[in-house]
Design brief:
alpha/beta; Alpha-Beta Plaits; seven-stranded mixed β-sheet; elongated; serine biosynthesis; PSP; magnesium ion binding
Length: 281
C-alpha cells in the first residue's frame, strides 16, 4: 500500500511525523503540497492513528494500492450540490423566497441521513410554490460556483479518456448548464414544474434519490459496457452512499461524517483535483 498525504499548506516534517505511524519505505514529493509514502503498513489501528493525526494537521490522506492508476477507471460520477459546486441550489432558490433557513434545515437533515430524501425534497420544493422561475437563473448567475479544483480535475479526467456523469438530487436547470459548460457526457436530475412562469411546488416525474442515483450509475455503466468497479464516484451526502457503494473508488468530498466513514477516500481540505494525486503517474 501507498499512503498519500496532501493539503493546502504542507510541511515536510509534519508529513514525516504522520507517515512514520505507517512506517513507509520512502517518502517522495509528488507536487508542491502532496507526498506519496511508499510501502506502508496498513491495518485498522494504523488507519485510525493516521486519521486523527492528519485531521489535526489539516491534511487529507488516502491509503491506496500501489498498482492502481487512473487508467483502471472509465467513468467519473459526481454529485452536484456541495460536490461539483459549492452551493445547495435549492437552499439558494429558497433564499429568493425568504425561506432559506427552513429549507436549509431540511437539506442538512437529509444529507446527514436523518430524513428520507424523497420526503425531504418534496417538502422543500413545496415551500418554493409561487416563486418566479427567474429566480433559477439568478441563482446560477449570482451564486453558483464550481468547487476548488473542479476544472483541473475534469481536464485531467477527460484527457485520460474517461467519461463523466453528473447525477444529482438537484434540478435539471442547473445540471443542463453544467453539462454544457463543462462538456460532461451524462447528467440526470429532477425537473421542477413551472406553470405560468412560476414554480408550482412540485417535481415532474420520479425523484432522483439514493436508489435512483445508484441505478443511474448502473445504467450508464451498462451503456458503456464497463463494470461499476471501473468508476470513481464522488459525493457528500447520505443520498450518495448507494452509488458510492458500488464504485471502484468512492470519494467523500467535504462530506457529512456518515459519508466520510464509509468512503474509500475523504477529501476534507484539498480541492476536487486531490483525486489526481492518488494515482502513480
Amino acid at each position: 500500500m501507498n499512503l498519500i498525504l496532501q493539503g493546502l499548506n504542507v510541511q515536510r516534517h509534519i508529513v514525516e511525523q504522520i507517515a512514520g505511524l505507517a512506517r513507509p519505505r520512502t517518502i517522495v514529493a509528488i507536487g508542491e503540497h502532496a507526498y506519496r509514502c511508499i510501502d506502508v503498513s496498513y491495518n485498522d489501528e494504523v488507519k485510525s492513528q493516521i486519521d486523527m493525526a492528519a485531521w489535526a494537521a489539516q491534511l487529507d490522506y488516502a491509503f491506496i494500492e500501489r498498482s492502481r492508476s487512473l487508467s483502471d477507471f472509465k467513468l467519473l460520477v459526481m454529485d452536484m450540490d456541495s460536490t461539483l459546486i459549492t452551493i445547495e441550489c435549492i437552499d439558494e432558490i429558497a433564499d429568493m423566497q425568504g425561506l432559506k433557513p427552513q429549507v436549509a434545515e431540511i437539506t442538512e437533515a437529509a444529507m446527514r441521513g436523518e430524513i428520507e430524501f424523497k420526503e425531504s425534497l418534496t417538502r422543500r420544493v413545496a415551500l418554493l410554490k409561487g416563486l418566479d422561475a427567474g429566480a433559477l437563473q439568478r441563482v446560477y448567475d449570482e451564486r453558483l460556483a464550481l468547487s476548488p479544483g473542479a476544472e483541473k480535475m475534469l481536464a485531467a479526467i477527460q484527457a485520460a479518456g474517461m467519461k463523466t456523469l453528473l447525477v444529482s438530487g438537484g434540478f435539471t436547470f442547473f445540471t443542463d448548464r453544467m453539462k454544457q459548460r463543462l462538456q460532461l457526457d451524462y447528467t440526470h436530475s429532477n425537473e421542477l414544474e413551472i406553470v405560468d412562469g412560476k414554480l408550482s411546488g412540485r417535481v415532474m416525474g420520479g425523484i432522483v434519490d439514493g436508489a435512483e442515483k445508484k441505478a443511474t450509475v448502473e445504467r450508464v455503466c451498462k451503456e458503456l459496457d464497463i463494470a461499476p468497479r471501473q468508476t470513481i464516484v464522488m459525493g457528500d451526502g447520505a443520498n450518495d452512499l448507494r452509488m458510492m457503494g458500488i464504485a471502484g473508488l468512492s470519494v467523500a468530498f467535504r462530506a457529512k461524517p456518515v459519508v466520510r466513514a464509509q468512503a474509500d477516500v475523504a477529501l476534507n481540505f484539498v480541492g476536487l483535483d486531490g483525486i489526481l494525486q492518488l494515482f502513480s503517474s
